[in-house]
């Protein structure tokens, strides 16, 4: 018979704690009458972990590609169960208490997350920085970026249906696999819930595989790269707004605040800030196309509207208009310079023409180049 539940444990030299984890999972199957199997996703153990798993009746799946994410993907792909619950083989999670997960999966949830902050973190189970800085901050960013109502993004004990796992199309190979699962589930509008989970100190005598700062950065980097809106779009709107308003005011006249006068030198910086914001906006568009066309992010109606409203012809027309306006302003500035016999430009009013002219010229060139590259990226969609 096809098992209802597969418990997958990633394993890299877990001989000290592997047996007790397998026995707890099997005891759960027997007590609750669950048709289940235990799969050990071995990532190249050299301490006899494979023999321990085989002797206890678990199924060992060899995963040659190194990494937490690779090990789990290999084990989950090989799982035969309708549902999968994954958890570390270090005895920090109690595989004898999986019923809340299975009940939620039976109710129809696609992803069931454990929440260690609701279930309880025993003394010494989680480092201080992880408990009060890393996990809360990264979980907050995840909720903010992806609207996932999950309080603990990095709980290692979680359950999901095998069909949901296939829909997620997970790509990452390392510790950021944990974040990718929630992000992909949220982006694909899968049903997510969480249950309280107790975290205990692991039973190993060696240090854990997790590296606080490198792995924390990998999680943060992943969240940023998978949210071009927060990485590029929102900063671009902020920079362009400040740069545009300040530039318009300074083109009209200098402004004095608290005895300090802001003139054409500030105009130069505000124009640069606007261009930086515009560059971020272009990167947002290009990143959006790349990630969607390569299957990293799902398509949406907004994405389709990009190609309906942003065409090569419209882009070239807009960019060329800015370039022509820049040329006209440059000619006017040249004429003003000519009136003083090409002498030193000490009149700041001339620079109030020159700086916007340069900004419009750069803006026009950027729009034209973006339009060409945007069209190239969209060839696959248009075809």
Write up what this structure looks like.
The chain is of the alpha/beta class and 383 residues long. 58% of the residues lie in helices and 11% in strands. It contains 15 helices and 9 strands. The strands form 2 sheets. Strands 3-2-1-4-6-5-7 form a 7-stranded mixed beta sheet. Strand 1, helix 1 and strand 2 form a beta-alpha-beta unit. The longest helix has 30 residues. It is elongated. The relative contact order is 0.09.
> Number of DSSP strands?
9
Number of DSSP helices? 15
> How do the helices and strands follow one another from N- to C-terminus?
EHEHEHEHEHHEHHEHHEEHHHHH
| CATH topology term of the largest domain | Spore Coat Polysaccharide Biosynthesis Protein SpsA, Chain A
Query: What is the CA-based Rg, rounded?
Result: 28 Å
Largest sheet geometry: 7 strands, mixed
Into which percent range does the helicity of residues fall? Answer: 55-70%
* Level-1 CATH class name of the largest domain: Alpha Beta
For the record, give the distance between the C-alpha atoms at the N and C termini, rounded to a whole number: 45 Å
Shape: elongated
Mean pLDDT value: 90
Any idea what the CATH architecture of the largest domain is?
A: Alpha-Beta Complex
Strand order of the largest sheet: 3-2-1-4-6-5-7
Secondary-structure-based class equals alpha/beta
Strand content: 5-15%
Contiguous uncertain segments of 5+ residues: none
The CATH superfamily of the largest domain appears as: Spore Coat Polysaccharide Biosynthesis Protein SpsA, Chain A
Q: How many structural domains does the protein architecture include?
A: 2
């Amino acid at each position: 018979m096809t098992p209802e539940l597969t418990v997958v444990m990633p394993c890299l030299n877990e001989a000290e704690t592997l047996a007790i984890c397998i026995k707890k999972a099997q005891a759960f199957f027997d007590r609750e009458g669950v048709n289940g199997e235990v799969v050990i996703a071995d990532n190249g153990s050299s301490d006899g972990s494979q023999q321990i798993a085989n002797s206890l009746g678990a199924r060992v799946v060899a995963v040659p590609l190194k990494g937490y994410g690779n090990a789990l993907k290999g084990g989950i792909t090989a799982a035969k169960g309708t549902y999968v619950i994954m958890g570390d083989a270090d005895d920090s999670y109690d595989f004898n208490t999986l019923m809340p997960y299975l009940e939620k999966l039976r109710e129809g949830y696609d992803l069931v997350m454990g929440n260690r902050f609701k279930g309880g973190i025993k003394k010494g189970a989680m480092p201080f920085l992880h408990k009060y800085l890393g996990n809360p901050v990264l979980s907050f960013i995840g909720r903010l970026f992806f609207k996932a109502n999950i309080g603990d993004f990095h709980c290692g004990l979680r359950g999901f249906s095998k069909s949901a796992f296939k829909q997620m199309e997970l790509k990452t190979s390392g510790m950021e696999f944990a974040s990718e699962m929630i992000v992909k589930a949220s982006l694909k509008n899968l049903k997510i819930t969480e249950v309280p989970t107790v975290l205990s100190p692991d039973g190993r005598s060696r240090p854990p595989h997790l590296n606080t700062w490198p792995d924390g950065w990998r999680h943060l980097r992943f969240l940023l790269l998978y949210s071009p809106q927060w990485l590029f779009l929102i900063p671009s709107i902020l920079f362009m707004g400040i740069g545009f308003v300040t530039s318009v005011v300074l083109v009209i006249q200098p402004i004095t605040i608290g005895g300090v006068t802001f003139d054409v030198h500030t105009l130069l910086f505000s124009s640069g800030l606007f261009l930086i914001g515009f560059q971020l906006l272009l990167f947002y568009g290009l990143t959006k196309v790349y990630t969607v066309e390569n299957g990293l992010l799902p398509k949406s109606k907004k994405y389709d509207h990009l190609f309906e409203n942003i065409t090569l012809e419209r882009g070239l027309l807009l960019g060329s208009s800015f370039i022509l306006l820049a040329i006209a302003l440059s000619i006017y500035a040249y004429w003003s310079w000519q009136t003083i016999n090409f002498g030193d430009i000490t009149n700041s009013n001339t620079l109030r023409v020159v700086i916007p002219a340069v900004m419009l010229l750069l803006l026009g060139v950027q729009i034209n180049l973006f339009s060409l590259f945007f069209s190239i990226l969209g060839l696959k969609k248009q075809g």
